[in-house]
Specification:
InterPro entries: CobW-like_C, Zn_Chap_cDPG_Synth. This is G3E family GTPase. With 297 residues, the protein is α/β, with parallel strands linked by helices. Helices cover 28% and strands 18% of the residues. It has ten helices and eight strands. The mean pLDDT is 86.
């Protein structure tokens, strides 16, 4: 058993452990979550530094960021009941299942470890793919009718109007406990924009070029670092460009959320206009991409 420091990214801890001890066989990576604190920790916005999970006050991560990265990377999540009522434990287990459908959710009782932890083999490559915010895993394939948590996936194939989308950022981040995925902004047609949000935390950053924006001979350089997914099925004229956002939460108002997002898409007339004249020069997302490299200068 190896107890990784909470302030170290889980993939770094595992990678370092295996490099230093190649004779070891890693059976499982386990994250423990408190049934009473999971939802408050995701919503609270407490910084990683104030929670004792970072060495520097300049660390931009929140407690929710750290917790989600640990849940994403693990193949087992232990729900610690403590004094939580049964209903709260059920909500916690349901939420964990939606945050990481690949994980086995186990109960932590009296310090005992389920024997299944020692029978498997941890898949490091699959875990690395799970922590990529641009490529959220599919929702649970067979959720129960009374499932406490929900995951809704918004997927469209038209670009977003930067101005309209910027105006709804606050409302979007408030609709769910966690959202992540990739975006196609009309003002940046060749750049995959990576979206990740939880609680009060929002991250938007360039995620490299869309595969369709690259010469055919170099596309393998990008796809080799991205998880295998049917999301890269090419569409005539636009290739793999798309909107793909997964929202996980409790009591999601999917209809309202999707209507809001759909209103931000370019309509056909706007698409024709932007293709002919280009997007307006004002880009409200420029501060998010201040350090983005652009070939033209």
């Amino acid at each position: 058993m190896f107890d990784a420091p909470a302030d170290v990214e889980p993939h770094t801890a595992v990678e370092t452990l295996l490099e230093r001890h190649p004779e070891l066989h890693l059976c499982a990576v386990v994250t423990a979550v408190d049934a009473q604190l999971l939802v408050p920790d995701l919503l609270g916005g407490e910084t990683a530094f104030s929670a004792g999970l970072a060495d520097s006050a300049s660390d931009p991560r929140t407690l929710g960021d750290v917790l989600l990265r640990q849940i994403d990377f693990s193949d087992h999540v232990a729900v610690v009941r403590g004094a939580a009522p049964a209903a709260q434990v059920r909500v916690c287990r349901s939420l964990v299942t939606h945050l990481n459908p690949a994980a086995s959710v186990v109960s932590h009782t009296n310090g005992e470890h389920p024997p299944t932890l020692f029978r498997g083999s941890f898949d490091f490559a699959a875990a690395l793919h799970r922590v990529l915010p641009a490529f959220p895993p599919p929702p649970p394939s067979d959720p129960a009718e009374d499932e406490a948590a929900q995951t809704a996936v918004w997927r469209r194939f038209r670009p977003l109007h930067p101005g309209r989308f910027f105006e709804v950022l606050d409302e979007m981040t408030a609709t769910s406990l966690r959202s992540r995925g990739r975006l196609w902004l009309a003002g940046r047609p060749d750049t995959m924009v990576v979206w990740e949000a939880n609680g009060t935390s929002l991250s938007l950053e360039p995620g490299g070029p869309w595969t369709a924006a690259l010469p055919t001979r170099t596309r393998h350089l990008v796809t080799g670092f991205r998880p295998p997914t049917t999301a890269f099925d090419s569409r005539p004229g636009t290739g793999d460009r798309c909107q793909h956002l997964a929202f996980t939460g409790l009591g999601l108002d999917t209809g309202r959320l999707f209507t809001l997002l759909d209103s931000c898409l370019l309509d056909p007339a706007e698409e024709r206009e932007w293709e002919a004249a280009g997007p307006p020069p004002d880009d409200p997302f420029q501060p998010f991409f201040a350090h983005e490299h652009r070939p033209d200068g």
